[in-house]
Structure formats: C-alpha cells, structure tokens
Amino acid sequence: MLHEQQLKQLELVVREAEEGPGYFGEALSSFRAGAYRASVLMMSNAVFMHAIQKLEYAALIDGNYKTALDDVDDRRKQGAAFEGRLLSCLSGGALLDEECLAYLTELHRLRNVAAHPTGGKIRDSDAAMLLRDGVKLFLAQRNLNPLVTVEEIVGRIKDPEYFQRKLGHEARSDLVSSEIKLLPATAFERLAERVVKLFREADVTIHVNASTFLSECVGMQNDRLTSAVVKKLIQSKLKAKNPPALLLAIVEVLNRQVKCIDLLSVEDRVHLDEILFGLFDNSGSKRDSLSPAGALALKLADSSDFKKVRSSLTASLALGLSLLTNPKAPKELRRSFASNLRRSARDFGPNGARFVTFIQSHGEELIDVLNDGQVRDLLEALKYRRIGGPGGKNFSNTGECLTDPASMGFSEDEAPLIQFEQNLRSRISTFSVTANLDDRGKTPALQYFA
Predict the structure, then answer these.
(1) Which one has a higher pLDDT value, 410 or 145?
(2) Distance between CA atoms of 70 and 320, rounded to whole angstroms?
(3) What backbone torsions phi and psi does residue 395 show, to the nearest 5 degrees?
(4) Better-predicted residue by pLDDT, 252 or 210
(5) What is the 3-state secondary structure (H, E, C) of 326-338?
(6) Of 240, 245, 264, whose CA–CA distance to 195 is shortest?
(7) Fewest CB atoms within 10 A around its CB: which of 21, 63, 114, 182?
C-alpha cells in the first residue's frame, strides 16, 4: 500500500504537461479514492503513451523502429487496441531492458483485467506496484528524446561531485548503469562521442569523471555499449594528437576490458600500439619513422602525465601481454611487464589472486612471449611463493625455512599454477634457483632444483 506521503513524492517526480490528458494525475486520484481499477487503467494510459513517445524518438535516430511505429499508429487511428502490438515491438529491440519489459507485460495483463468487470479483482497492492514501478522505470524520465537525455547525462558527469570520493566500485557501476538505462541502444554512440569530447575541457576533475564513466561502461558486459565506446574513444581519435588525459582514458578502458582491443581494425591497432610503444622507447632511435602521434608520445614520455599512463599500462597483466604479442614492442615495456609479472607471482594478496585468474586465461599465451631469462625469473618468483608462504614469513632472518616446504603446496584454488609451472619447466630442463630473500644480503640455505 502507498501512503499519502509516498503519493506526494510520486507527484513531485512526474511532471505532466498542463495541456495534456493528465493520465498520471487521474491514476493518483483514483488510487486515493480506492478506485483501483480506474487507477490501473489511467496508469496504463500514462505509461503506454510514454512508451509510444519513446518509440517515436528512437525512430528519429534509428530507421529500424519506423515500421513498428507506423503499425502502432495505424492501430491507434483505427481505435483498435494497440498496447499488445506496442509491447511486441518493444520486446524485439534494444529500446528497453528486461525489467522495463517485465513491467509492461504485467501492466498489460492487469489493464485487461481492469477493463473487464468480470476479469477479476484488482488489489490495492497491484495498483500500488504499478504506480511505484511505473514512475521509477518510465515516468521519472523528464526527456524522452535520447539526444536531450545524452546532454543531461554529460552535464551531470561534468559535476565535480558526480563520482563522490568515497563512492565504492559497486556504487560507481550502479550509478553509470542507471544512466545507461535512460537511453536506447541507438543513442550509445552519441553518448560515447559526447563524453569523449569532455577531454577537451581544462578541468582535470572532468577528465577523471569522463574516464571513469567510460571505464564503467565497458565493464557492463553490454557489447553494443562497449563497441560504441571503442569506436568513439579509440577508433575515431587515434589519428588526433591525443592529450595525456585521453590517452590515459584509453589505457584505463583497455585495462578494464582488454577484449576491446579485438574490436579495433588492423590499422587502428597498429596505430594504438605505436602511440603506446612511444611511451617506453627511451632510445629515440626510431623517432624519424614514427607517425606524428607516435612522435608526440615519445616526446612527452618523461612528463608526469605520461608517466602515469605508463604506470597504468604496465600494471595490467592482460593488457601488457596483449601489447607484447606485437614483435615491435620496446624492451622497456617488456622489462616493465616482466617485473610486474614477478611481483604478482610472489604476492598472496589481491594481486596474487588476480595473477591466478590471469594464468587461467592466458597461461599458454604468456609462455610464448617470454624469453628463457624471464621464464627463469618467473619460476623463481613462483618458488618464492610456494616455499615462502604469505609475505615470505616462512623464512627466518638467516633465510632458512621455518616450515618444511613440502607441506606448503598450493591451495586448491591455485591449482592452475601447478600446471603453469610444469609448462614453464618444459622449456628449461634443469633449473637452479638461489633466491636473495633478505634485505641484508643473506641467502637462504635452501637450494631448489627442478
């Protein structure tokens, strides 16, 4: 049941045009009077009229919706019931998500019940649910034109407090998800294009908000949205002189969803690699052969902004591995990646957990890009992890093992590392490790032979 205060809150959220039919106001009045059948019928009129307007605006930017719109309009002009046809049209596209479609289906069912005196009783809880959820999912949207909605979203992103400092990862994802739900899939490219343009602003906070927003978008596992971000952020912008903020956004998006690289054309992938490789090529020996974008990256590689880009780039194992599949990858990038790989392999904390996940997905590919020296270093790190325990606490001050390493095997959830170790050893028949594990230069007595 909805109480009067809750009904007043719904009235504040929904703004009906004064010259319009006022369906939502009638739905509230009927609910207050206990006329729940009338409330359902008026709410159905309000929501389905909203859905028609949504379909009309979608047809302006995607001609595929035009046929469906014409069919619905013909039924309305003939005075025939159109709600079922409208629901069918909306169900076949990407205009509404599953929650909205489920609501419309229930609304259509209860409308049919309310329209027939012998159709059954409409409970106050049914009418309350339709009012509450109808406002939340449909009527709360002030602008149905997706192009206007895009501008409203961009305006909110420009607010320095859009992503509050203490907002956790899950809360950020929910915030971005709520914004995306306001748009049909046909408007995703427009949104991505407008957010990318925010990197032209002088305010660093806006850059951070834009980068975070795009990163959360590709993390939503929506292929059409991800494709839109890649197209507008990377494909259409690679040939420009990318500012550090935009380049960092590219790295953060790829770090969040490495498979974005697979959406690039061959030409764009080559261009992206050239720009990113320029941040690591300290020799400058290939400066003359670089494109303007690559030369820019090389020129600014030592600036603080680009050092942040390099740091973000090498922090991602999956992204680093993807870049290293290019034989032209600079030595500095390979060294940075190998160093991060060793640290992750030794770590029992969050980085260590990510390392196990990374090995499960990319273990075989990783072995192909490592040289023999890097294989040896990685085996040493894995050995340290196995015999040292969390934080290397299994070693005494003199470097001796406090607990028999034979009793410190991998836990069950780290079983993939055992197979990975075996694959590494297949490249090196005999291997000896003498780990330097003490800051004072003391060496553990334990020698390990494969």
Answers:
(1) 145
(2) 51
(3) -105, 140
(4) 210
(5) CCCCCHHHHHHHH
(6) 245
(7) 63
* CA distance linking residue 238 with residue 271, whole number of Å: 7
Q: For residue 438, what pLDDT band results from cuts at 50, 70 and 90?
A: very low
Using alpha carbons only, what angle is made at residue 190 by residues 188 and 192, rounded to the nearest 5 degrees? Answer: 70
- Reported residue count of the chain is 450
What backbone torsions phi and psi does residue 433 show, to the nearest 5 degrees?
-120, 130
Nearest residue to 355 via CA among 382, 334, 373, 380 = 382
pLDDT at 5: 83
Structurally, what CATH architecture does the domain formed by 4-143 represent?
Up-down Bundle (1.20)
**Tokens describing residue 447:** 């020698």
* Distance separating the N- and C-terminal Cα atoms of the chain: 71
> Which position has the token pair 């834009």?
210
Structure tokens at 263: 């959406």
b/e sequence 183-220, b meaning 16+ C-beta within 10 Å: bbbbbbbbbbbbbbebbeeeeeebbbbbbbbbbbbbbe
Residue 93 — pLDDT band, cuts 50, 70, 90?
low
Overall pTM > 0.90: no
Per the prediction, the chain carries an average pLDDT of: 75
For the chain, give the secondary structure using H, E and C.
CCCHHHHHHHHHHCCCCCCCCCHHHHHHHHHHCCCHHHHHHHHHHHHHHHHHHHHHHHHHHCHHHHHHHHHHHHHHHCCCCCHHHHHHHHHCCCCCCHHHHHHHHHHHHHHHHHHCCCCCCCCHHHHHHHHHHHHHHHHCCCCCCHHHHHHHHHHHHCCCCCCCCCCCHHHHHHHHHHHHCCCCHHHHHHHHHHHHHHHHCCCHHHHHHHHHHHHHHHCCCCHHHHHHHHHHHHHCCCCCCCCHHHHHHHHHHHHHCHHHHHHCCHHHHHHHHHHHHHCCCCCCCCHHHCCHHHHHHHHCCCCHHHHHHHHHHHHCHHHHHHHHCCCCCCHHHHHHHHHHHHHHHHCCCHHHHHHHHHHHHHHHHHHHHCCHHHHHHHHHHHHHHHHHCHHHCCECCCCCECCCHHHCCCCHHHHHHHHHHHHHHCCCCCCEECCCCCCCCCCCCCCEEC
> Which residue's structure tokens are 């640290």?
343
Other C-beta atoms closer than 10 Å to the C-beta of 262 total: 10
Residues 36 and 114: their CA atoms lie apart, in Å, by 8
Tokens of 133: 């959820």
